[in-house]
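Observation: inputs received (chain + manganese (II) ion).
Thought: call the complex predictor directly.
Action: predict_structure
Action Input:
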Amino acid sequence: MTDRTRVLAALRDQRVETASWAFGNSGTRFKVFAQEGVPRDPYEKIADAAVVHRFTGVAPTVALHIPWDRVDDYGHLSAFAKERGVALGAINANVFQDDDYKLGSVTNPDPAVRAKALAHLVECVDIMDATGSRDLKLWFSDGTNYPGQDSVRARQDRLAEALSAVYGRLGAGQRMLLEYKLFEPAFYMTDVPDWGTAYAHCLSLGDRAQVVIDTGHHAPGTNIEFIVAFLLRAGKLGGFDFNSRFYADDDLMVGAADPFQLFRIMHEIVSAGALAPAAGIAFMLDQCHNIEPKIQAVIRSVMNVQEATAKALLVDVDALAAAQQAGDVLEANDVLMDAYQTDVRPLLRELRAEMGLDPDPIGAFKASGYLETVTAARVGGTAAGWGA
Ligand code: RM4
Ligand code: MN
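Observation:
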């Protein structure tokens, strides 16, 4: 196999999962700027996700958020997705938007609130059974705002107890992905603030509990690719929530703020042989498109992941290993930078042509008239949004 064939084959097999909530309205706590043509229900979100797959060819699954995507019949929703050429992906639990969760969900001091949160998590596994989803994604906003507000240790005990109950409910072939986040909405202490905490809980749960890295959930300057390498080596990396950030949890398009960081992450993935779907790493988008057109932004995001991946695949691994072995610092760095500096856009156009796609997904999407069609059709009703 020539190098070019190897790179093209890996790119052809790559999978990126889109997020249903990226197609709905979103904003900051200051303002949500509504857009025209936004989906009004989970079906319309899936229709938009299917369009992203149609033009990119590598985004065949879409993640759901419950209760935002609650429907009466998940089998029916699955069948609709299939009809559109996609499948339902990870189920994201939501235990952060109910009044009862003011002092936490699974770590709340009140046992009744903890029981309510746990029931929701278990319901999410029921939904996975109906949708055929493999992954349950757990993010907890739990934490405290003031020193002394609650016992840090007691909250860890409550968290461990809830996680273990949900873990016990997982069916064969299902996984639990535990996400961490440094701060927000809790400002003093978050119950799962970092990868180490998530890792420790996953380790005691068992093989089917793994960590998910949301690229926006770290302190500025954190070396995320180190976390990737560490968790991969430990067999504890379940996947990514890709997005990019300039300051906090900005949820901007992946690869927009720091394409070099995305390349460094993908280099760790590729060098560990973890890119192919069989390796079990879920590459998901978790973004909000507050001011830009949503479907086009998701297409752009998928392309950004492809560009970083293509560059990572172009790293001359033999030359890199030789330079590292020889202790040649500058040569090793040069080998990496050489791949990063390569313009991979022609290669990706070639890939798309080979896959029977338009080499220019954004141009093709714009020319398709899809946005105009849905803008005309989606009048009346309530546009889906973060929290709807
Ligand atoms: C959280 C976290 C979760 C996401 C929600 C919407 O900050 O990233 O993964 O589902 O936001
Ligand atoms: Mn996330």
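Thought: report the result.
Final Answer: The chain has a mean pLDDT of 97. Residues 65, 92, 139, 179, 181, 214, 241, 249, 286 surround beta-L-rhamnopyranose (ligand 1) (CB under 6 Å).
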